[in-house]
Amino acid sequence: MSFDTPLHLCGPLRQPRQMLAEQEYAGHSSIHDDSTAEQLGLQAGPIEGPTHFSQFVPLLADLWGRAWFERGCFSAHFQNMVVEGESVRAFVARPQQGAARTKAWAEKADGTPVLDASASLGPDDGETLLEQRMARLRPPEELVILSDLREGMTGAEDEPVRMDADQDMGKLYPFSLNQKLEKITENSPWYSDATTSPWGRPVIPLEMVSVLVEHTSHKARFPMKQPSVGLFADLEIRMVDGPLFVGEDYLLRREIVALSESKRTESYWVRTRVYDAAGETLKAQMLLNHAVMKASFPGYQEERQGG
Fold it and tell me: Which one, of 197, 200, 281, lies nearest residue 239 by Cα?
């Protein structure tokens, strides 16, 4: 018997944990600090968006197996913030046989959307959700906080990075991988035990790839005005020759690929390429929309109006 009923995989309800309450950048606290969030009209400091990525990994591994860790791409637009104590469930549409792309999304327990995403296997997986969103961007009218940024601007230097199991990842991410694994919603021995990993090395979890990539982002020295508070509005992580490994040296190169604006934010979209330590072999890429809240910059309207 045959049906055309669309089916999907779903995971259990989880309550992700907040680990960025002590985050600091440019000399001030971030949106993940409760008091800062409340000043900007939010309920409390939100959980960092990439945290939700972990809930999708078991579902995507069920669909595509080992290939997901080696060539998978998860491309997400964040819709509503989640605070600690709220429950979230991940969904993945079951793709047609042999398909290299599918839809994914997450919801709170009451059905409130958390994120919308595409999940796919490269290299021939077509346009991702964020590539589609970027294609529809309109040029910003007038940037204030990001007025000195330009498309095509690259980071000031190549950035050597690595993530050891007990390494504190700095002011942007004041915790280690081992501390994250104590609270991660979906743990796997592949993240900590080399003997269980198909590659003979512990694998950096999908949600921690953004930590690897962003913890040295200050070295790019992109000229944006302070004090200002931002958040992740869109995030795409693509494995090219993956996975990325714990205790492995990598080299990062950054480029601003788009600038945009909404009613409440100014945004700069950065594509960061992750190479091997020699800077020769591309291992992964991350596309991040840094959305900076206009209300967080003192005198924003006056400066925009030329006051």
Answer: 281
